[in-house]
Each structure stands twice: as C-alpha cells, then as structure tokens.
Amino acid sequence: MNQKVLDFLSAAGTFYLATAEGDQPRLRPMGLVMEHEGKMCFSTNNQKPMFAQMKANPKVEICACSADGQWLRLCGTARMVTTPAAQQKALDAMPMLSRMYRVGDGLFEIFTLDNATATFQSMAGEKETVSW
Fold first, then answer.
1. Domain coordinates of the chain in residue numbers?
2. CA neighbor of 33 nearest in space, from 18, 20, 17
3. Mean pLDDT across the stretch 58-77?
4. Model's pTM, two decimal places?
5. Residue 40: pLDDT above 90?
6. Is 102 helix (H, G, I), strand (E, B) or coil?
7. For domain 3-123, which architecture applies?
8. Please, what sign has the CA dihedral across residues 36, 79, 95, 15?
9. Is residue 49 within 8 Å of residue 24, measured between CB atoms?
C-alpha cells in the first residue's frame, strides 16, 4: 500500500474504477477507499456486473482528479479480501453503506489491488510513479 495514493483518493472523494466486460471497458464512480491490515481496500456488491467483471478479468484501473489539476491513475489486479473485520471497517469509514450492506450479509465484498502501480501527473506534465 502507498499512503500518498490512499490520501489522494480519500481527498478526491469520488474516483472512477474501470473494468472490462469482454472487449468493452466499463467505468463507474466509487467513493470508499480505506486501509485495512496494511492493504488499500475498496468495496463492491457481489451481485453487480463489476464483481463478475473483476472475477473474469481482475485487471482494473482507477482514475481520480484533485481540485488543483493533478490526477492519479492507479492500476492493479483486484483480489477479494472480504472478512467481517474488513466489512465492519468499511461500514465505519462510510456509514451510508449501512443502508445497503451488513457484516456477513453475503453481498458486501472488500477487495484490494495486487501488483499496483500509481502514476501522479499534473497539467504541467510533472509525473511520479510508485508501485507496490
């Protein structure tokens, strides 16, 4: 996990995650990012197309922008790390999720990214890449 990436995504509020459905990219807004047991984690519902797409092809990419014109591109391989503790931490981090999910409900999934690479870039062309 990289703290700078976590901080950037947290500050962005909304970021976008892309998956693939066959040869068609699929993009959707996301809001939950958290650290859990040293991993950067996100959430989804295992009944959504996003979950099926990540199971079929776990390579994903996330994009986020900051108010000052910087952006982040994060790519990696999605891996489910769902546990009751991770679910509870996600619900604590984003209480509005409790309207849709409960710990152990059979729907709520937590995932992390393995083999992750993040590139920070500015409108001026400055670039920094980190991997973990």
1. 3-123
2. 17
3. 96
4. 0.95
5. yes
6. coil
7. Roll (2.30)
8. positive
9. no
